[in-house]
Design brief:
Rossmann fold, about 20% strand, binds 6-O-phosphono-alpha-D-glucopyranose, alpha/beta, 3 domains, about 625 residues, Glutamine Phosphoribosylpyrophosphate, subunit 1, domain 1, 18 helices, 24 strands, single chain
Length: about 625
């Protein structure tokens, strides 16, 4: 791990320098990839799709253009599963497209998987985004005799292009007409049976990789970074015509637009698992390093941020999922230590909440990806009402970073595991730094010490594996925490749900007696977060209450106690800093429980890393 200490930093720096941030809200649940060159397309496409599939992975497919025909293979499952089943990579041809899907329109089945062919099989497309007027177009095309094989909105692009091609016999002209007829947000790549390849971008990400042996079009650098470090970022409203030897880029009216080739870091290709079995495990183990690198703000930036918060009358903090749990800890720290009145907003609820942002308001938006639709919506509502938006994100080229007046980088390197781990502790590290700046009463956190403590906890993982093996057949787990620990309990129960699929719920310890105690019997497992701080006595009472009802107790504490059936030892730190440490063994517990229960921790069922739809 230490040999890679610097690589993420280098990537972030280089990509930042190179990337033209999109100015609109992006959706990139699906990955699209195309290739035209002198190599066989299908193996390159399968490799690229495999690297991008963390964004969407319920089905996959590839199409190639070969000897005046388009060949398509696709299926349901992860890229390697579909490839094992139908040999996607064996399709012949040096021009092709590929796709991984995360279903929005239509069921997860082979018919709805991309690529989609036009009804005469002359054109195939892969698409990311939503075509708003697809029903209208579908009706119109059907009346002209074009037929459809899927429930998707995407398929209309193939038939529309085909109809325009049938009229013009010119692929570029048919693209121009098609682009003038589509409404919605999209990026798509199309191939024609005679070997043409075209790629268009409208409010969805799309870039061109310029390789020695051909060109790539992709929704993500990861699609081609193994093959080239030269990239052209398409702007919104541009499309590219690609052949094995050249690219031409135009606006949607067909006027040529100049383009610039920028270099990205080859090391981005190292976003792999290294020696770890899973990305999630790797990311949990990176935390001693990533918390040290979080923020990376200059003193001036930190001062500026703190000043913006202090001068705002109304301070809000928001996020989704794990980022919301971090936001709650931020709220606790700001209120308790800096005495700042701050309201937390769960992003998906903002539109229904009585929140009145104004020009005296500031919104602190937390999002690992910077692309969660719910968070972006909250940020937009705030901004439209005149509030200032500042963000804490891992992707400085994201839509959220772009719309914020200042964005602080988590700087924790790509987080591939769908369930957030290292981004959570990096968010906390930044919130601690900010709280300290705001009040100065919170002892300056000694992150080196905390980092050492986390390393020690991570070394001693075998007892967590043992506890996880106990949880193999458990159906319910309750996680209790008081004070600041209640938010760690929320995050721990979210991890348990996401990774192990065990039903997990969290409560403040004192709430047990107001209802949840009715659920506790000898089948229940209860995790009590019980460090020896101001919450200790109260949580010890809750522990006795559940123990008396026969529950098995997993105690996480710096103080051993016979009442615990299992004890997860913690080091002793200041009360405020426990969250950074105590979440780590709980992440491992969720991870190993997933392994025990044969769930894939990197790709929990039904979940996506970046939820860019409402
Ligand atoms: C999805 C992921 C969660 C994540 C949440 C917020 O639901 O599955 O792991 O916490 O999005 O993501 P963000 O990128 O905004 O932090």
């Amino acid at each position: 791990m230490s040999s890679k200490n610097d690589w993420e930093e280098d990537i972030v720096r280089k990509i930042l320098a190179a990337f033209k941030a999109p100015k609109t809200l992006d959706q990139h649940m699906c990955s699209i990839l195309g290739y035209a060159g002198s190599s066989q397309a299908a193996p390159l496409l399968v490799e690229g799709l495999r690297r991008m599939e963390y964004r969407g992975y319920d089905s996959a497919g590839v199409a190639t253009s070969f000897m005046d025909r388009i060949l398509v293979k696709k299926g349901v499952g992860r890229v390697f599963e579909v490839n094992n089943a139908v040999n996607l990579d064996s399709l012949p041809g040096d021009v092709g497209i590929g796709h991984t899907r995360w279903a929005t329109h239509g069921k997860v089945n082979e018919a709805n998987a991309h690529p989609h062919l036009s009804s005469s099989n002359g054109i195939a497309i892969v698409h990311n985004g939503i075509i708003d007027n697809y029903l209208e177009l579908k009706r119109e095309l059907s009346l002209s005799g074009y037929t459809f094989r899927s429930e998707t909105d995407s398929e209309v692009i193939a038939n529309l292009l085909q109809r325009n091609y049938d009229t013009t016999r010119d692929f570029k002209k048919s693209m121009i007409t098609t682009l003038s007829q589509l409404k919605g947000k999209y990026a798509f790549i199309a191939i024609s049976k005679d070997g043409g390849l075209a790629a268009a971008r409208f409010q969805e990400p799309l870039m061109i990789g310029v390789g020695k042996h051909g060109y790539f079009a992709s929704s993500d650098i990861l699609g081609f970074v193994r093959n080239t470090d030269e990239v052209v970022y398409l702007d919104n409203g541009q499309f590219a015509m690609l052949s094995s030897k050249a690219i031409s880029i135009s606006d949607f009216e067909g006027n040529p637009t100049p383009h610039q080739i920028t270099k990205i870091s080859k090391e981005f290709a190292d976003a792999d698992k290294s020696d770890y079995v899973h990305y999630t495990l790797k990311e949990i183990y990176e935390q001693p390093i990533t918390i040290l690198r979080a923020g990376g703000m200059t003193t001036r930036e930190l001062d500026w941020l703190a000043a913006s918060i202090v001068r705002s009358k109304n301070v809000y903090i928001t996020g989704s999922g794990t980022s919301f749990n971090a936001a709650l800890i931020g709220k606790y720290l700001f209120s308790k230590y800096a005495r700042i009145k701050i309201e937390s907003l769960i992003s998906s609820e903002t539109q229904f909440s009585p929140v009145y942002f104004d020009s005296n308001s500031i919104l602190i938006a937390l999002s690992q990806s910077g692309e969660s639709a719910d968070v972006l919506e909250t940020a937009n509502i705030a901004k439209d009402s005149g509030a200032e938006v500042i963000s804490i994100t891992n992707v400085m080229t994201s839509s959220l970073a772009h719309m914020s007046s200042i964005s602080v980088s988590l700087n924790c390197g790509p987080e591939i595991g769908v369930a957030a781990t290292k981004s959570f502790t990096s968010q906390l590290a930044i919130l601690y730094k900010l709280t300290n700046k705001l009040c100065g009463v919170l002892d300056a956190p000694d992150f080196n010490q905390i980092s050492n403590n986390i390393s020690k906890l991570l070394l001693n993982y075998s007892y967590i594996q043992q506890i996880a093996s106990e949880l193999k057949n458990v159906s319910d787990i309750y996680v209790l925490g008081n004070g600041i620990h209640q938010y760690v309990a929320m995050e721990a129960s979210l991890k348990l749900k996401e990774l192990s699929y065990i039903h997990a719920e969290s409560f403040p310890g004192g709430e047990l007696k107001h209802g949840p105690l009715a659920l506790i019997d000898s089948n229940a497992y209860v995790v009590v977060i019980n460090p020896g701080d101001s919450t200790y006595a109260s949580m010890s009472t809750a522990t006795h209450e559940v123990k008396a009802r026969g529950a098995k107790v997993i105690g996480i504490s710096n103080i051993p106690n016979e009442i615990y059936d299992y004890w997860m030892p913690l080091p002793t730190v200041d009360e405020a800093f426990y969250p950074l440490i105590e979440i780590v063994p709980l992440q491992l517990l969720a991870y190993y429980s997933a392994i025990e229960r044969n769930a894939n921790p990197d790709y929990p069922r039904n979940l996506a890393k970046s939820v860019t739809v409402k």
